[in-house]
Records
---
Amino acid sequence: MKIVISVAAIVILSVVFTFANSATPGKIVFPEDQLQSSLENELQDGRWELVMFWATYCHICKKDFKKLGTFIEDNPEISLTIVGVVIDGLEEQEQTQALVKKHKLDYTHLITDYDRANIVYQEESGSQLRGTPSYLLYNPQNKLVAFNTNAIDIDALEIYVYE
């Protein structure tokens, strides 16, 4: 009986430990001039991918962090991954790390500057990056299906991912 309890306790602790680790902040990557290839490396076949261009000074971005977190929590059946593209450049590296930790943003964030982010955004969408937040949405086949240069519209996001 003691062995069963010990094994059960180990299983419970490992589940708790795994859950706690999954809530830790995401990794921060410094792609330098390779933003496009770094972004492509983050996109996964078989999942919806939402690329969020954001900045540390953007108040709407911080609201969108919460909206997206709630959306993902409320819809666990959707395979949706977020990739952050931070346009502040390396100068705001510490601020970026603090915000990722504070908001528990447990996905990858690529730090770059506005000019490099704009090139990628234009190549992908055909539209200029006007500011933050801005989004690129890829379907599970890694095809761009939508882009937005404003706050996230959760209702519109649902229409795409539940089609």
---
Amino acid sequence: MRKITAAPVLTFSLLLLLIVVLATGTDYLLLGRFSLGDFRGVIMTLGWVLLVYLYGIAVYRIFLRYFPLKEGEIAAHSGEEFGYQVYLLFYLLLFYPLTRNHLLPTPLMRLLYQALGARLGDNSFSAGVIMDPPLTEIGANTLVGHDAVLFSHALEGHHLSHAKIRIGDNVTVGAKAIVMSGVTIGDGAMVAAGAVVGKGTRIASGEVWGGNPARLLKVSTSSVK
């Protein structure tokens, strides 16, 4: 595992300070002038938290415009590594608590992941965790089950690389399944609950995979034309 260096930490700290200042100023301008009675403190605090996340998402997306996550190996001490480490601090310190708290309803999680850069087709939802939203593409009418995990990075010792996860239409990823970087899942396929789909695996349309490591179990007859 690579150590996060001082430059990304300082950059993230400055961006977080900007977010806090913007949220505090906006909170005061929107709510501070009104008489909110006995609930003033509670309302202003909730408003501040909401604004922190709204500004946080905006600053995060602007940062990714200049330092986008790219597929392939990430060399040590490179500009890509700097961008990834700042992105990682954003995700782990600001957004990860939202994706793991099980408090947000699944439809709101869909909006959150889209705001963080994931591509989700119509009527697709995740009740699991998408670790690298900018590198995740999911088609229409697809469900990622409870506590399933999708991560598009591979961190092996000092080796770090990115590869997109691409999931088609009408796919089911079962609860607590793990989908690793570079996986492609075709239309109508299914990943069984608890399965571990290894890096770079290609699951064809209509196939059912399960196990650890995941392997082909059968081809769904309903998807065969």
